[in-house]
Structures are given as structure tokens and as C-alpha cells.
Amino acid sequence: MSGTAPVPAGTPTPGAAPRYLVRPAEYADHARVRQLVAAHPPWTSRHPLPGNPADNPLLLHLGALDTEGLPMTWALLEHAQLRCCALVSLNATRDRQLRLHSGSGLALWIDMLYADLDGPDAAMYGPLLTAWFTDYAARHEQVGWVCAWLSDGPVADDLGARHGMEILRSEPTASSLLRRRPTRLPSLDRMIEAQLPPCVGSRRP
């Protein structure tokens, strides 16, 4: 993997406003996020899926901040339509075997990500938000990777290819680490408007 982060294909009209909006997901979004979670499986999840959908970690963390004071839940919207929502955390690499691959320091972990698989550009929403996280992580000098992990090898291979992430295996657990280096992606500005709270905006280089 080259270390560059591919940007999902798109053809924004010159001079037009960005088609998508990324902003922190708040508790006010609960009904829409609950509908998204109920209708579609997550493409990645560090958490076991609860029997009661109301106990889904993404729903429980809506509007929460991490120990750095940064939002833990983010939403991708297309003309006010929720297309993707993710739970992220800024943490040291958790698993010892995976840490041998990803190195020390902090990683932005995509703990859960749900995408609208019925939307007109369903294949684009997850990769687009993942690309935005790659740019977002690059705002934090101490963050060395954007990571996710899965236990299903074939699923990891498919998702890693579609989301532009390098795939590493962890023995003996057979878990798969999906990772990419934080990279500023100025071309995303033509596709995505980001509504960043002051706690994020103040850290922009």
C-alpha cells in the first residue's frame, strides 16, 4: 500500500456547493440513526451486536465526547438525508498482536460504521466517510493510523479493498487489522462540507 488515501469517485459540478455534509452526530439524530442501524448491518464493529437494538453502542454514544473532548459519533448527510454514521475513538492500539503491525502511539479507530445500503450511491457512502476520517485524523499530529478490525477474513478483504485500507492479519486470533495513514485530502472539500465544532476546528493545521 502506497500510504496515499484514495478518494471515492465523484464528479462535483464546478462552483456547486458540496453534495455531502459531515458533522458530529447528536442525540437529536437518534431516530434517524436508529432507523439506519435497524435496516443495515455494520461494515465493521469492535463491539458485539446487542440483542436489543436500543443498546447498540453507536446509539448509546450519540453526542458523546472522548477523553480528548472530541466527538465520538459522526454523520454523513446528503441533502439532509442520513447516509452514513460512525462511532470512533482515539486510542492506543488495543490488541498486542495488532500493535506489532500498527506501531505505538494513537490510532483513530472506526469502532462501528453503518451506511445506507439502499441509497442511490450506496457503495460510496462508507468509503467517503472513511476517506474523510483519514483527512480528519491528519489534523492530529499524534495520530499515526486510521484503523478498524474484523474477525471475518473474507469480509475484511472485501471491505479493505472497497474502503482503500491495508489489511494485516493477527495471529493466532485470525483477526484482520484494516488501516491507512492519516492524509490531508484537499479534494474532499469539493464533495464534503464539514461542520466542525470549536474543539476540532481549533486544531486544524
Overall description:
- This protein is an alpha+beta fold and 205 residues long.
- The protein has a single domain, classed as Aminopeptidase, CATH 3.40.630.
- Helix content is 25%, strand content 28%.
- The protein contains six helices and nine strands.
- Strands 1, 2, 3, 4, 5, 6, 7, 8 and 9 form a nine-stranded mixed beta sheet that branches.
- A hairpin with a 2-residue loop joins strand 3 and strand 4.
- The two termini are 26 Å apart.
- The mean pLDDT is 81.
What topology emerges from the helices and strands here?
Layout lengths: L19 E5 L5 H10 L4 E2 L11 H4 L12 E6 L2 E12 L3 H7 L3 E10 L6 H16 L5 E8 L2 H10 L3 E5 L4 E6 L11 E3 L3 H4 L4
Parallel strand pairs: 1-9, 5-6
Antiparallel strand pairs: 1-3, 2-5, 3-4, 4-5, 6-8, 7-8
Structural features:
25% helix; nine-stranded mixed beta sheet; 9 strands; alpha+beta
Shape: globular
Q: What is the overall number of helices?
A: 6
Would you tell me the structural class of the helices and strands?
alpha+beta
Sequence of secondary-structure elements? EHEHEEHEHEHEEEH
Can you tell me the number of structural domains?
Answer: 1
Look at the structure and give the mean pLDDT. Answer: 81
CATH architecture classification name: 3-Layer(aba) Sandwich
Q: Stretches where pLDDT falls below 50 for ≥5 residues?
A: none
The radius of gyration over CA amounts to: 16 Å
